[in-house]
Write a structure and sequence with these properties.
Chain lengths: 166, 74
């Protein structure tokens, strides 16, 4: 075989392999994918247009996720009337893990399950929990990785208020 | 010659493809790694005994391990 053709072929294959293995995370300014396209288990809110949405990825085995639940309940209570919708996307491989967790931890917001773990892959999550705050047009305006107690809670509040003012 | 090329190309594609066959555990698949039993520091008495052995045998103390389990949370 011609050496230059072999080189081109190898390069193309390597580039293709890199493309398929590297999944870039969603970043600020990106449009968040349509949640209806991922066959999530559970009922999504009817209309998200015009709402400020927090999409939070969590799992039952993740301690900081557990710590974030009271803060999320608090945020939903405080800003729900003003148009905040929190959608917590569960990533447990076993549904019973999620159910057991929810029995012990109250969630006053929407919880859906990404059973096929497709949405989390598209979002390119690197840390659990991770969340995205979307503006009323569905664009990512803020991202959070991990949950660091009152510090994160305060940031959420400031960012939601900034979006609600617009 | 044509057959040789096809065989070579296929072998190369398989070889390169298998390189990407090694996969890492995704951040959302770390349930087992996040388990308490996966923590290196879950047994304080065992830790101190091991430390004592290292110190006695190797004059080495501390500087090992990191906090937390393998869940990569936060």
């Amino acid at each position: 075989m011609n050496i230059s053709r072999l080189k081109k072929f190898t390069l193309a294959t390597l580039l293709a392999a890199t493309f398929f293995t590297a999944q870039a995370a969603l970043k600020v300014g990106d449009r968040f994918p349509d949640l209806n396209g991922f066959k999530l288990e559970g009922k999504l809110p009817d209309a998200l247009k015009g709402k400020i949405v927090i999409v939070d990825f969590w799992a039952s085995w993740c301690q900081p996720c557990k710590e974030s639940f009271p803060a999320m309940n608090d945020l939903q209570k405080q800003y729900g009337d003003q148009g905040l919708v929190i959608i917590a996307v569960n990533e447990d491989e076993e549904k019973s893990d999620m159910q057991d967790f929810l029995k012990a931890n109250t969630a006053a917001f929407t919880v859906v399950r990404d059973a096929k773990q497709q949405l989390v892959a598209v979002a390119g999550i690197q840390t659990m929990p991770s969340s995205f705050i979307l503006d009323d047009t569905g664009k990512v305006r803020f991202t959070h990785t991990g949950f660091h107690g009152t510090e994160t809670r305060k940031e959420y509040g400031q960012q939601i208020e900034a979006l609600l003012k617009k | 010659m044509r057959l040789k090329q096809i065989v070579l190309l296929t072998a190369l594609a398989v070889a390169v493809g298998s390189l990407t066959g090694c996969d890492t555990v995704k951040p959302w698949q770390r349930k087992t790694l996040a388990d308490y039993t996966m923590r290196g520091d879950r047994d304080p008495i065992g830790e101190s005994i091991a430390d004592h052995i290292f110190f006695s045998r190797e004059m080495a103390s501390g500087g090992k391990g990191v906090g937390g389990g393998g869940c990569g949370c936060n």
